[in-house]
Amino acid sequence: MTETEKLSKLPAFSIVVPVYNEEENVEVLYGEIRRSIDQLMRTYEIIFVDDGSSDQTLECLKRIKDKESRESARLAYMRIISFTGNFGQTAAMQAGFDHARGDVIVSLDADLQNDPEDIPRLLDKLNKDYDVVCGWRKDRKDKAMTRILPSKVANWLIRKITGVPIHDSGCSLKAYKSSLLKSVRLYSDMHRFIPAVTSMARARIAEIVVNHRPRRYGQAKYGLSRIWKVLFDIIAVNMLIHFHYSPILWFASFGLVFLFCGLGLGIASVFLFLNGVRTIVYPAASFLFLFLFGTLLSWGLLAEFFVKIERR
To answer: Got the DSSP string for 231-243?
Structure first.
């Protein structure tokens, strides 16, 4: 089968793998995916998205693809997307999702900690009338203090704030209906919030326990430094979920704090003035808080305007 014939034949599902400095892992991972998925006897594509690797990862991927293209017709077809710089895991996943042609999309990490043997189980669960199936690394093989504990805290916050009962939002091993993902745009570190965001579209979400393996080669690319970004992303996702159809309510609710502070300081300024105390601090602070309230209210009106345009 020629490359043109392969491209013209749409795969049943796509596997998206973001890659960054994983030269020792990509060939092993490719082999594991092939062994796990070929038994299903369905056409599929493997999309590796190189996120500006500074080692030999891209060269390794090209060698694998060259070898694959010389072999006879097969079920799998490998594709490579290469970034000119390091834009992050979320951007890499979004690029893979944009280029995926299958009706179902599976994502997983390239560090060999996700087990491709779990992919058929994810697909089987997805076929039972679900839109998203998430992997749960229940027995996680990572460092307790720097990886597992922060992850547990973050996942607890995500469950409480978004209301989506997923134990392990950070697990990259997930399966999605492609039609659902095509309507989602990812930014920042939002790839871990895809189940929460898709819940706005009433997506049916399931979760299964998956195998998690110790890292064999290389080192983790993310650590405690991402905590603050995750916290801000949680706030943004909470707003999207609960105030998507009426964002002015979110801005107004948040602005009430400034309104009450401004009014309280204004009343205190009047009281002090009537008692002969001359100060600029309280009136200035009152004006500042009331200005912030007005600003948030204006943003809310603008957001409401844009949401109404989007619905048309």
So the answer is: HHHHHHHHHHHHH
Are 6 and 46 contacting, i.e. CB atoms less than 8 angstroms apart? no
CA dist 172 → 15, 109, 168, 195 (Å): 12, 6, 9, 11
pLDDT tens-digit map of 162-176 = 778 889 988 999 999
Between CA 222 and CA 179 the distance in angstroms is 30
User: What tokens appear for 230 in the block?
Assistant: 């995750």
26 contact partners, CB below 8 Å, separation of at least 6: 19, 48, 57, 60, 61, 64, 110
**Three-state DSSP class for residue 248:** helix
Q: Which residues, at least 6 apart from 112, have a Cβ–Cβ distance to it below 8 Å?
A: 25, 28, 29, 32, 213, 215, 216, 217
**Residues 135, 169 contacting (CB under 8 angstroms):** no
Would you identify the CATH topology of the domain 3-243? Spore Coat Polysaccharide Biosynthesis Protein SpsA; Chain A (3.90.550)
Question: What's the pLDDT tens digit per position in 233-289?
Answer: 777 676 666 666 667 777 788 789 999 999 999 999 998 888 888 888 888 999 999
Q: Could you please report the per-residue DSSP string of 271-308? A: HHHHTT---SHHHHHHHHHHHHHHHHHHHHHHHHHHHH
Chain mean position to CA 164: 14
Domain boundaries, the chain: 3-243, 247-311
